[in-house]
Amino acid sequence: MITYLRKIKRKYQEQFNWIASMFYSNDDMLMIVRNSIDYIVVDEMKYCFNNCSEGIIRQDDKQITSLTKEDTVLDIGANIGDWTILMAKKAKWVYAVEPLYYRELQGNISINSIKNITIYSSAISKFDGIELNVSFHNKSSLAPTITLKTLLNKFNKIDFLRCDCEGGEWCINPEDCKDIREMRFEFHIRRQYLKRDREMFMKWLNWFTKNNYQVTIDKSKLRSTVDFKEMWNVSASRVGR
């Protein structure tokens, strides 16, 4: 049996993500046996049912319309691949960094027959080569660490960077991103480091301005139960280069 789950109108996206996340984790609400589903189809992209860790209704986002077939992408915090797979269909190659859900990511890449993605099961850190306990929701695992600078040295060029690593973005030195044309960051302001994270966020914004990036900022609404006080979505595009 193949179950098709189609996206409803975009204006209901936030509510639908919330409902969908409940469906994925609650078999009773689906009223079917989990093993009877092969995969879910969302906007013509397939997801193994067991790999749905969070909302996946994120297709055709305006943030990645600038991607071209000549671009090489670095996706930090790829999770199960909702963005990774979409970007791979638009770009030349995608390097996906995912320390926790890399097996689920690999499964979703495989079921979509995508060939232009390379996975790194490492965690972004200020230090190379240590073991870090990474956790998200109810899942945790030890993962080897790598700095962004070391990672970038593996590639000839990165044109587009997407980063959503739940606070790990604060381990990144902005200067290491100076040769990247387009960047999409989620900056998470942690409750226990509120003052420091806000100061670092302002340093990032000043760095973008100083280095000729056009910046768009959007603040996400967060529930009081999450670990973050604020989350800022930042799109940065270099001007005149």
What order do the helices and strands come in, and which of them pair?
Blueprint: E1 3-4, H1 13-25, H2 27-30, E2 39-42, E3 45-48, E4 72-76, H3 82-90, E5 93-97, H4 102-111, E6 117-120, E7 123-124, E8 131-136, E9 139-146, H5 148-152, E10 160-163, E11 182-190, H6 194-210, E12 213-220, E13 228-238
Parallel strand pairs: 1-2, 4-5, 4-10, 5-6, 7-9, 10-11
Antiparallel strand pairs: 2-3, 8-9, 11-13, 12-13
Description of the molecule:
- There is one protein chain.
- This protein has 241 residues and is α/β, with parallel strands linked by helices.
- It folds into two domains: 3-51, no CATH class; 62-238, Rossmann fold.
- It contains six helices and 13 strands.
- A seven-stranded mixed sheet has the order 6-5-4-10-11-13-12, sandwiched between helices.
- Strand 12 (213-220) and strand 13 (228-238) form a beta hairpin.
- The longest helix is centred in the C-terminal third of the chain and has 17 residues, at 194-210.
- The chain is globular and about 45 Å long.
- It starts with a strand and ends with a strand.
- Residues 1-16 and 22-36 have low confidence and may be disordered.
